[in-house]
Amino acid sequence: MSRRETGGLHEAAAARHLEARGLTVLARNAVSRFGELDLVLADGDTTVFAEVRYRRGDGWGGAAASVDAGKQRRLVAAARAWLARHPEAARRPCRFDVVAVGGAPPYRIDWLRDAFQPED
Fold first, then answer.
1. Model confidence over 11-68: pLDDT tens digits?
2. Dist CA 113 CA 108 (whole Å)
3. Residue 78 maps to which CATH number?
């Protein structure tokens, strides 16, 4: 199985997890010149940009720790590009979540709401 196919399985598991908690998927793998957004969701009136990270184990700090400052800047830039194409979402509050997927099916999923704030 390719890395993209494996990533798709983890993103699908994360999407199911968030949908079961009341969020609605607006977009998957939204690509811009700034990078890719794994999941864009609505949580009530809030637009959520969720980065999905997979790790087999917790070595190297786990999946959430891999969303470093550089990755955060790329996610914010990609989110701004997405919001520019979706002005209705730009009028709502936004947040950045990290969904850490671990292990093998059934996956262990840790949802970190409001994982980081954009630097302005």
1. 999 999 999 999 999 999 999 999 999 999 999 999 999 999 987 765 555 666 789 9
2. 16
3. 3.40.1350.10
Structure tokens at 100: 């850490």
Q: How are beta strands 94-102 and 46-55 bridged, if at all?
A: parallel
> Taking the alpha carbons of 69, 73, 78, 84 in that order, is the dihedral positive or negative?
positive
What is the CB neighbour count within 10 angstroms for residue 56?
A: 9
Give the total number of structural domains in the chain: 1
Q: Using an 8 Å Cβ cutoff, are 72 and 25 in contact?
A: no
Residue 83 CB: number of other CB atoms within 10 A? 18
Q: What is the pLDDT of residues 86-113, one digit of tens each?
A: 999 999 999 999 999 988 888 899 999 9
Q: What CA–CA distance (Å, rounded) separates 77 from 36?
A: 10
Structure tokens at 87: 């002005």
Q: 3-class DSSP state for residue 31?
A: strand
Residue 59 DSSP class: G
Domain around 18 = 3-116
